[in-house]
Specification:
4-stranded mixed beta sheet; 11 helices; 7 strands; 3-stranded mixed beta sheet; alpha/beta; 10% strand
Length: 336
């Protein structure tokens, strides 16, 4: 093989390795909500979101790509560098065996250095420094790669998952939950006793915990909620989201009742004219007398960020998780 062909193949392999490394670290570091903000206007951002939704399969693809590039560099570039170094080192007057061993070691060091620095460390640093930008930029070619090799990637991912389960771990286990109000009060008291938290701040934190007993009636948005009809398409939901600035859009049934909720991110993988019925979930309904603490508990249990608030049979409006959390602000707490 000519030196020019070896050079071109080496550059291509290092570039491919850099591509897979950048994809891997960009999606590990990217903030999903930032990708969602771009997804309404960008096909590449929607592709990045789809990759986030199947991250383990994507990581299998990245690892496969990096491994193949590494093996190819060892099969093509290292022998070529070895062959080029042998006559140069032969001028040192060393024995033939010593020249061959020294050329092998130097070739291995050169190829490893180039691959490690240019093909792995540099793209990794770039992806971590600009996660959302790199994730969007590389999303479409990575999705094309995954379409071609999806059966193999699924097998690799399932095999790895089975090994993890066999080791006694659950790869799908959720993150550990938070602490109860009583535990938090005890933690505040302990922090004061240990001298790591002063009394004024402790008083404000304790007051924040007690505010949870207030009713959610005062947090309700009483303006007409943003809603679409039961037969709405993905394009209509996205348009409603853009017009209102809300990511969650309510769905009315044929009788005009608010019965469902759809998040705009769930429509990003749908065609414009495709109905959103399959991604519509039931809307959470809460009585106006419910406390803030119980509201948070129900929202957490049902994994929802928006709920309808009613009194009797009348819907008063909606309340969001941001409203509930935002209620506990310095303006509501005593000054220390």
């Amino acid at each position: 093989m000519s030196p020019l062909a070896v050079l071109l193949i080496t550059v291509a392999l290092v570039a491919l390795s850099a591509f897979f490394v950048a994809v891997e670290f960009s999606l590990m570091a990217a903030r999903r909500h930032r990708l969602e903000d771009q997804a309404l206007h960008s096909r590449a951002a929607r592709a990045a979101l789809r990759s986030c939704a199947e991250l383990t399969v994507l990581l299998a693809g990245c690892q496969l790509g990096i491994t193949v590039c590494t093996l190819a560099l060892g099969a093509v570039t290292k022998p070529a560098v070895h062959h080029a170094l042998v006559p140069l080192l032969g001028t040192l007057g060393l024995p033939v065996a010593a020249v061959d061993v020294l050329a092998f070691v130097l070739a291995l060091l050169v190829v490893t250095f180039v691959h490690l620095v240019v093909g792995e460390m540099a793209p990794k640093s770039w992806a971590i420094a600009h996660p959302e930008r790199s994730a969007v930029l590389l999303a479409l070619p990575m999705r094309a790669f995954m379409v071609v090799l999806r059966p193999l990637l699924v097998v690799l991912n399932d095999t790895a998952t089975a090994l993890v389960r066999r080791a006694g771990a659950d790869p799908d286990a959720p993150a550990a939950g938070g602490r109860s109000p009583a535990e938090l009060r005890h933690l505040v008291e302990h922090s004061v006793d240990a001298g790591v938290l002063d009394a004024p701040h402790a008083a404000r934190l304790t007051a924040a915990l007690e505010i949870g007993d207030a009713a959610i009636d005062g947090l309700v948005h009483r303006a007409p909620p943003v809603a679409v009809g039961v037969g709405a398409t993905a394009a209509e939901v996205r348009a409603a989201s853009l017009d209102s600035g809300h990511l969650r859009v309510l769905v009315r049934d044929r009788a005009g009742e608010l019965t469902g909720l759809v998040h705009v991110r769930d429509t990003l993988s749908l065609a414009d004219r495709e109905p959103v019925a399959d991604v519509t979930r039931p809307v959470l309904r809460l009585p106006a007398e419910l406390s803030i603490r119980d509201t948070l508990a129900r929202m957490r249990r049902t994994s929802t960020h928006l709920a309808l608030v009613h009194r009797g049979g009348e819907v008063l409006g909606v309340v969001t998780l941001a409203d509930v959390l935002g209620f506990v602000t310095p303006t509501h707490l005593p000054r220390g």
